[in-house]
Amino acid sequence: MGKLVLLTLLGAGLALIGERLVAIRRRTNASREVEPVEPQNCHLVEGLGYGSEDIDVLPSGLAFISSGLKYPGMVNFGPDEPGQIFLMDLNEQNPRAQVLNISDSFDKASFNPHGISTFMDKDHTVYLYVVNHPNMKSTVEIFKFEERQRSLVHLKTIQHKLLISVNDIVVVGPEQFYATRDHYFTNFFLTLFEMAMELHWTYVLFYSPREVKVVAKGFSSANGITISLDKKYIYVADILDKNIHVLKKHDNWDLTPLKVMQLGTLVDNLTIDPDTGDILAGCHPNAMKLLNYNPEDPPGSEVLRIHNVLSEQPSISTEYANNGSVLQGSSVAVVYHGKLLIGTVFHKALHCVL
Ligand SMILES: *[C@@H]1O[C@H](CO)[C@@H](O)[C@H](O)[C@H]1NC(C)=O
Ligand SMILES: *[C@@H]1O[C@H](CO)[C@@H](O)[C@H](O)[C@H]1NC(C)=O
Ligand SMILES: *[C@@H]1O[C@H](CO)[C@@H](O)[C@H](O)[C@H]1NC(C)=O
Ligand SMILES: *[C@@H]1O[C@H](CO)[C@@H](O)[C@H](O)[C@H]1NC(C)=O
Ligand SMILES: [Ca+2]
Ligand SMILES: [Ca+2]
Fold this sequence. Notes:
Blueprint: H1 2-27, E1 41-44, E2 54-57, E3 62-67, E4 84-89, E5 98-99, E6 101-102, E7 113-120, E8 126-132, E9 139-146, E10 151-158, E11 166-173, E12 176-181, H2 188-196, E13 202-207, E14 212-219, E15 222-227, E16 233-238, E17 243-249, E18 255-262, E19 266-272, E20 279-284, H3 287-291, E21 301-307, E22 315-322, E23 330-336, E24 339-344, E25 350-353
Parallel strand pairs: 6-10
Antiparallel strand pairs: 1-25, 2-3, 3-4, 4-5, 7-8, 8-9, 9-10, 11-12, 12-13, 13-14, 15-16, 16-17, 17-18, 19-20, 20-21, 21-22, 23-24, 24-25
The protein binds 2-acetamido-2-deoxy-beta-D-glucopyranose (4 copies) and calcium ion (2 copies).
């Protein structure tokens, strides 16, 4: 009798695991293949071979690029070296990426940059806020950008007990930002469990020196975050739920949900077209190929544009799609006056004239 119960439990356990494995395959679009959509005039960016996780562009066309992220469960082809921040001038015909020098006061050896966001104060000084994972912790680093010296001067490290597993930030004022938490558990296997069980335990946090609070929750994996051109709305990508949440921002920094747009692809980082206000979304068409990397059948890339985000019927178009033969694991895309720059989690970066 005891054996029968044990066997029944074992069978039920295996069935549950099997069912959850199927759920993971479904959630990661594991059987999806990509139909190519490629603008005419694209070329790979020199000097950016090992990832360009996040990109943020100043109104002047200078783009900051975070590179060299090391993340559990993610492949990394780079040399075993710390991460770096690159600069590109998108006004140039064939822009090249240039490493920014970082001041000596900062611990460069453990630099592991993830999401970034720029902030310009009233006297036009540019600050770069960088999500950092030194020794797999999460901090937010504030740098001042010295354009003439092409360097970053480290000003401050922000740590807080709610700033855990931070993916991306969007700066909204001096030392004020929204941040996404992309998973609840910090242990890699528990993270897989969290994904398989479809827990919705991640959130968006508001940080300021005076107040830190959770302002939106219930995301499966809150990822890219950005703000609308009029600064009234916050857009959050939920990568595992394959959607983008539009939230209204209030004077006290609270957010209220407005709507959710389903995209059917795993949305990573979000940026805004400065000319139109459209959202550009760097997406993973098949996340199983990203997690379970096979050079013979690599993960592809996909960039979507969401037009008229706040209208009743936003329309979605594909700016770029490739099966991985050119670009693998797109995580972010920016447009700047007719030019498109696509970054990836660990692969190259592509520059296209639209
Ligand atoms: C980078 O910064 C350090 C310290 O500020 C300085 O010693 C070094 O010369 C700089 N390197 C370059 C290439 O500018
Ligand atoms: C872009 O998304 C990737 C994947 O989640 C992440 O590693 C990276 O930090 C993101 N970058 C930004 C700026 O959000
Ligand atoms: C990818 O996932 C979305 C939503 O989960 C689904 O609607 C779509 O059919 C999937 N695509 C493929 C090709 O599996
Ligand atoms: C990707 O597409 C190209 C043609 O665009 C094709 O030659 C190649 O075999 C495809 N690769 C995979 C892995 O499907
Ligand atoms: Ca960002
Ligand atoms: Ca991201």
